[in-house]
Amino acid sequence: MARLQPDLEKEIARDASLREYIKELQKTTNVLPRYFENLSVGDLAEIRKNAIVDPSSANIIYKIGGGHIHIDALHSRYITIEAKLTLEEKEKLRRIKDLILEKATAEESVETKEDLVRILEKLFALSVEVVGKGSMKRKRKTGKVAVDKRDYDLLKYYINRDIVGYGPIEPLIMDPYIEDIHLIGTSKVRVSHKAFQYGLETNVRFDDDVTLNEFFISISERMGRPVSASRPIVDGTLPDGSRINMIYSTDISARGSSFTIRKFAAEPISPIQLIKWGTFSTEFVAYIWMCLENKMNIILAGETASGKTTALNALLCFIDHRGKIYSVEDTPEVKPPQRGWQRCVTREAGPEDARVTMFDLLRAALRSRPDYIVIGEIRGEEGRVAFQCMQTGIPVMATFHASNATKFIQRMTGQPINIPMSFIDNVNVIIFQSAVNVNRRFLRRVTGVEEFIGYNKEEGGVLTRNVFKWDSAADKLYFRGNNNSYILEKRIALEHGYSEPKDVYKDLRKREKIIQKMVDLDISGYHEVNKILSDYYENGPDSLPFTV
């Protein structure tokens, strides 16, 4: 019999569900999981590294909130550990929900999650009666559901999980190490984990199509974008900031209603952290800092799940913190740190004349004369307004689906965006980011940066210059624009009146030293980094909390 670790032994003494799970696990294996109270970035890196060499070494249990997760990387399994309901307990849960629903009509409307929890606590107490085991079999006429003490705590957990939380997927939503949650019909949910990016099969599933469809309706109504047979495809944002795409009914999703949830951290990741993870380099961050400080138009391009939004949020901290920023999105994901930030979100529901598109929002933003417009993603006709903003002198930063400069130009000049080829050079810099596989590790990397120089009418094309190139063999981003950057020399240096354009690289190196110092001192928290940059814009280099 495998021996329990001291910390795991203490935890199972406190948690009955974990105790039962470990008991069953010991019947089939002699290798018990390692236990983590709190997983750190370092722990994740070690687990990922060991899993590549020996998947069985990544057999772990960790605590999230009041529950536990077991990952068996050898068999690609992700197991949520929570007490299971018997058929009798499921029936009691159904009856309690019905009673709560009846009583809820007499309650005040709720505005916050705290209000909902408070009222639910009250309604649960009014719907349940705790009785001794001997009196459970006697018929009672109280109008309440009779339960014993053990059932009371268990049923209260499930009521909160299903009404306040996200039902069966609540543990997955709670887990900060999950990036992506995917479900098709009543099959088992699959997840992408930060330590094991490939799909892990979970033990989470919906009992039947009725339960699944009820979940879809409930979640979509919470978002204010109700799903229905007439509107079966819905994109939205969950209260925790995660993005969800729902496809409802078997009419268009043959295997049953499906959803994909892309989770985002409550706090954006800082550029310093992305340097430490290898996504950015210090030279790249210093270069983008100078571009954003000088109001260049920047596009972040890449395929789906390449980390564009994460990178966008990280780089926004380099826009002058005193400026007025407008973000325009259909699903809220952008989080600029500037105090003068106005978030604009489309409205797709309701009558035709009440709907607000990205095109409408961009036109409104254009009239407000912001210092920067940030577009969550350019997809259609809003691209034309984005280029109008650039031409009027309002800088734009946006994301776009394209894998290289040629594809970017083709998509921008084709349907449905239709930007004239001669307008493309309004974009100053385009950053390409990809999800790559390096030594069996799934990583996100900036793979290249192109500067747009101008439109050549005679050749009928756009001139570009590559200033950063990622080397896959060395897993390193090289700066090829040193003493050869059009944007730094011909745009920024000339606009600022440098007597010698090459001196602009001295300013680049100063910023690189500041970034490197933050890396060396492990100043990587999002708010820490933003505080330093905010002070820098307010008071200059003398405000830095370190010397460079």
Strand content: 15-25%
Q: How large is the count of helical segments?
A: 17
Q: What would CATH call the class of the largest domain?
A: Alpha Beta
* Reported CATH architecture of the largest domain: 3-Layer(aba) Sandwich
- Main beta-sheet annotation: 10 strands, mixed
Q: Please name the CATH topology of the largest domain.
A: Rossmann fold
Question: What shape does the CA trace take?
Answer: globular
Low-confidence stretches: none
Number of domains: 4
Mean pLDDT: 89
The CATH homologous superfamily of the largest domain is called P-loop containing nucleotide triphosphate hydrolases
Strand order of the largest sheet: 1-2-3-4-9-8-7-12-11-10
How many strands in all?
21
Helix and strand content put the structural class at: alpha/beta
Instruction: Report the end-to-end length measured between terminal Cα atoms.
Output: 57 Å
Helical percent range?
A: 25-40%
Q: What is the alpha-carbon Rg in Å? A: 27 Å
Produce a short descriptive summary.
Helices cover about 35% and strands about 20% of the residues. It is α/β, with parallel strands linked by helices and about 550 residues long.
Characterization of the model:
This protein is an alpha/beta fold and 548 residues long. The chain folds into 4 domains: 1-75, no CATH class; 87-165, no CATH class; 176-260, Beta-Lactamase, CATH 3.30.450.370; 271-543, P-loop containing nucleotide triphosphate hydrolases (Rossmann fold). It has helices at 6-14, 16-28, 41-53, 87-104, 113-127, 149-163, 170-174, 209-222, 271-276, 282-293, 308-315, 358-367, 382-391, 405-413, 486-495, 504-520, 526-539; strands at 34-36, 59-64, 67-72, 77-81, 128-130, 145-147, 178-184, 190-193, 199-202, 233-237, 243-247, 258-262, 298-302, 324-329, 340-345, 372-375, 396-400, 429-438, 441-456, 461-471, 476-479. The strands form 3 sheets. Strands 1-2-3-4-9-8-7-12-11-10 form a 10-stranded mixed β-sheet. A 9-stranded mixed β-sheet has the order 15-14-16-17-13-18-19-20-21, sandwiched between helices. It has a two-stranded parallel ribbon with strand order 5-6. The longest helix has 18 residues, at 87-104.
